[in-house]
Write a structure and sequence with these properties.
The chain has about 140 residues and is an alpha/beta fold. The protein folds into two domains: about 5-40, YefM-like domain (YefM-like fold), CATH 3.40.1620; about 45-140, Double Stranded RNA Binding Domain (2-Layer Sandwich). About 50% of the residues lie in helices and about 25% in strands. It is built from seven helices and seven strands, in the order βααββαβββααααβ. The strands form two sheets. A four-stranded mixed beta sheet has the order 6-5-4-7, covered by helices on one side. It has a three-stranded mixed beta sheet with strand order 1-2-3. Helix 4 packs across helix 6 (about 115-125). It is elongated and about 65 Å long.
């Protein structure tokens, strides 16, 4: 079928990695475990369907609050640009913490849906880029 045995992968590691990078991802079978070996660019493309969206609130003092829809994160800044950057930093910090304790967080029913957003943030790895990705919708208080 489509799978390669893990023993074959170990034996031909360099060839398999070269093939993954230059050709296509590989499905690998080890006993009863199945995994996918892929390059980051393909994963980034797969995750492109996942968007960071936020509700935008203008506060009485003129500052801007952004509330992320996908993960329970909220940040406030003096303007939209600073609020975006703060929220992007929070997203990246959350993703790093989540990944650091992946077994714990990915098994929590309310946090499991965060996995694609965590991976997207980690792959992006840049607060400014994440901030630019944010799709904000103005909301009345």
């Amino acid at each position: 079928m489509f799978t390669i045995n893990a023993t074959e992968v170990r034996r031909d590691w360099s060839t398999v990695v070269d093939s993954v990078i230059r050709d296509k991802p590989k499905f690998i079978k080890r006993t009863h475990d199945y995994m996918l070996l892929s390059d980051i660019e393909l994963i980034a493309n797969l995750l492109s369907a996942y968007k960071f969206t936020a509700e935008q609130f203008i506060e009485d003092d003129g500052s801007v609050t952004l509330s992320l829809n996908e993960i329970d994160l909220v940040e406030n800044g003096t303007d939209e640009k600073s609020a975006r950057l703060k929220l992007a930093k929070s997203i990246l910090d959350y993703a790093e913490d989540y990944y650091g304790e992946f077994n714990y967080w990915s098994s929590a029913p309310n946090r499991k849906p965060h996995i694609p957003y965590v991976l997207k943030a980690l792959i992006t790895g840049d607060c400014e880029m994440i901030g630019e990705m944010l799709e904000c919708r103005a909301t009345e208080i």
